[in-house]
Amino acid sequence: xxxxxxxxxxxxxxxxxxxxxxxxxxxxxxxxxxxxxxxxxxxxxxxxxxxxxxxxxxxxxxxxxxxxxxxxxxxxxxxxxxxxxxxxxxxxxxxxxxxxxxxxxxxxxxxxxxxxxxxxxxxxxxxxxxxxxxxxxxxxxxxxxxxxxxxxxxxxxxxxxxxxxxxxxxxxxxxxxxxxxxxxxxxxxxxxxxxxxxxxxxxxxxxxxxxxxxxxxxxxxxxxxxxxxxxxxxxxxxxxxxxxxxxxxxxxxxxxxxxxxxxxxxxxxxxxxxxxxxxxxxxxxxxxxxxxxxxxxxxxxxxxxxxxxxxxxxxxxxxxxxxxxxxxxxxxxxxxxxxxxxxxxxxxxxxxxxxxxxxxxxxxxxxxxxxxxxxxxxxxxxxxxxxxxxxxxxxxxxxxxxxxxxxxxxxxxxxxxxxxxxxxxxxxxxxxxxxxxxxxxxxxxxxxxxxxxxxxxxxxxxxxxxxxxxxxxxxxxxxxxxxxxxxxxxxxxxxxxxxxxxxxxxxxxxxxxxxxxxxxxxxxxxxxxxxxxxxxxxxxxxxxxxxxxxxxxxxxxxxxxxxxxxxxxx
Length: 570
Prior knowledge:
The chain is an alpha+beta fold and 570 residues long. It has 16 helices and 16 strands. Strands 8, 9, 10, 11, 12, 13, 14, 15 and 16 form a nine-stranded mixed beta sheet that branches. Strands 4-3-7-6-5 form a five-stranded antiparallel beta sheet, sandwiched between helices. A two-stranded antiparallel ribbon has the order 1-2. Strand 1 and strand 2 form a beta hairpin. It is elongated, with a radius of gyration of 50 Å.
């Protein structure tokens, strides 16, 4: 099997991502992270160099401004025109402005602004930064009258150089707005980042093509494994077009293991129930465990089995295999599991597997399917007989064989609390000494077997208990449950109502009318009016009525009649 693994492939709720894609994404993230960090560090170092360079330029401009201010002080001393001298100093300062927010100002030691000029020609400059002023005043007291300075203002953070002008009695400051340099740096950073992303995408495309080609067999292997997980069935991985590498060797080893496991599973699921196989396949431990569960039990038995065995000898196995092939198929098809097969009898369990229908409904459907399957088998045998009789009559021995292969079954169903689980021996030290079997224990199992036995007495194919009747009736109107009798089976002290599930989808309405009439006769029988009951039963063409006619005979009901018939045999 081949194909692509999509980014959204899932096994259950787990998303499956190709390993090649993971490697590529990790590689991309590492490259981008490395490039961005390197670029950022480089820009930070460059920014420091730019600040140092700007400081050098501003020192040169400050010297020129300082010289101009000294000259202008001399001119002011003669002319007395302070404003003209200040204006001249501002014009000299403006010639050195290179950035949008470059500025020069004169600040007295008490924070007064003597002059102010900037590239944007702002109206004024507010009070100078108090902390910066304290710092340069402290330096001045120590004899340091010039140096670098940083200060804040409503327009942003500035850095620059200063020098104290003794003539004018204030600090001359030349400064640049820090954000002007950062904007320039970030612009460069953005351009470089864009180039990094473009080149990374180009290399990613080339890497993806290369990795895609190299990991193509691995994706095909993953596809096969995902399909196996969905189907819950092991199969072989296609390695016919895979290269001769360690990944292909791993796939070949898996194929060898898969064949061995499949052989074991095929054997395993032939001998254990379907729910145990599912549990083992899911990877859960199968140990000695069990619990009380509310389940439905179906018991089916081949009628007149002793006669068939005596007639067919070893060939009875062949007949049983044909019969059980259809029976087991019907059980599994209706969400049941086979609890056990004992000779001619089979016990099926309903309620351990998930199903949209109730356990009782599934059991009743299976019961009718089993009876129909055996009827079809009898029809096939009858068709073969007719073909032979067109040519000749059957011999006496052939007649006996024919009667022996005309398999007929009875089915009993009951529901209730049972112990369902695994019993036996689990030897952890030596698993070869372990032996476990899946079993179901409870009175409901025995009851289903006894209900099956009643099919022979009442001459009906299927008998169910009242609990089965109630559960199915609450779910569907397909089956009309005809009350057959109230019996007290051997070993019990209470009577139990038994029912015949009439299938309205498959059986004729006229027959239903007969059974409904039978229920009228049954009521008279319960009430002790056996005369009226006999009259109704004699007017019906149902085999079940013969049981009651023989039971009542020509007498009336006993004086202590309770309506319950006590069985003397199992």
